[in-house]
């Protein structure tokens, strides 16, 4: 028996022993060997919400990066424990905006305008619990790539400016789709005074875009789109809105992870797709839809390195620990942070209804 096969057998045995007291969540970017054990698959927020509906589960094991497990812990029911197979599996994008940096930006904006009356802080769900809590405390809100446009409209209906953290590309693509001109946007550099701008620029800017990005989706380029257009004239190109604006503009479609999956599932046999998103997902779609031609937009596979830190042996260790009465790698969020972050998340859910 190979090591992989042995680990799979151990995980199945542990799952059977724990029964309905255990729920395993698997993000779409997980490797196949791990996601096969997921009771629910999805993007980060869908999975966190799935966990809250698992009333019988005492333990939620989140196979994804750390901010996702934090979100699950914020939304978990009393008495539920959220565990993470590898606490070192962070998120490049989430780490580009710390709570301290956002608080400093807010204070600097307060030098040139009345932030509590004029600015709504909006954070992408790919952010730390502390940044979500900051938004909750200052009239702000969380968004996903699916509902970012609705959230941006909600924010600008209440105040004249938005501070959008931490993904500049999602913010820029969403603002343009909402009809906001480029001259009404500016990128906020957290390492420079006033984000690198003068007071007048900040006052006339509607959407301030945090200088952050996803290292997976930043990898895609306009040149890759051009190559596929020349190689396969009938191919359709679909990309995630975390990709740079120049890539989104050249693509046929842009959509969230869930939207990309749905688009492929609804497409007829013979459809041709070049997909600009994480390679584990592209590979899985290719395997699940052999009747279609599916490739990664990039010739060099774009993996999320931290997602791939979750392995069979780490998952086995956590679930076997539960069988033995040991809670390994619990994810905790302080009550104050969780309370404020939940406010921002609940505002988003209200906007999305």
Helix and strand element order? HEHEHEHEHHHEHEHEHEHEHEHEHEHEHH
Number of domains: 3
Estimated helix fraction: 40-55%
Strand order of the largest sheet: 6-5-7-9-8
Beta-strand content bin: 15-25%
Instruction: Find the count of extended strands (DSSP E, 2+ residues).
Output: 13
Question: Which features characterize this protein?
Answer:
353 residues, alpha/beta, Rossmann fold, 3 domains, five-stranded parallel β-sheet, four-stranded parallel β-sheet
Question: Which helices and strands occur, and which strands form pairs?
Answer:
Blueprint: H1 3-18, E1 22-27, H2 32-35, E2 40-42, H3 44-52, E3 59-63, H4 66-75, E4 81-83, H5 92-95, H6 99-109, H7 115-118, E5 119-124, H8 129-137, E6 141-143, H9 148-158, E7 161-165, H10 168-177, E8 185-188, H11 199-204, E9 207-210, H12 222-231, E10 236-239, H13 245-250, E11 253-254, H14 257-265, E12 272-276, H15 279-288, E13 293-296, H16 312-323, H17 335-352
Parallel strand pairs: 1-2, 1-3, 3-4, 5-6, 5-7, 7-9, 8-9, 10-11, 10-12, 12-13
Helix pairs in contact: 1-16, 3-4, 8-17
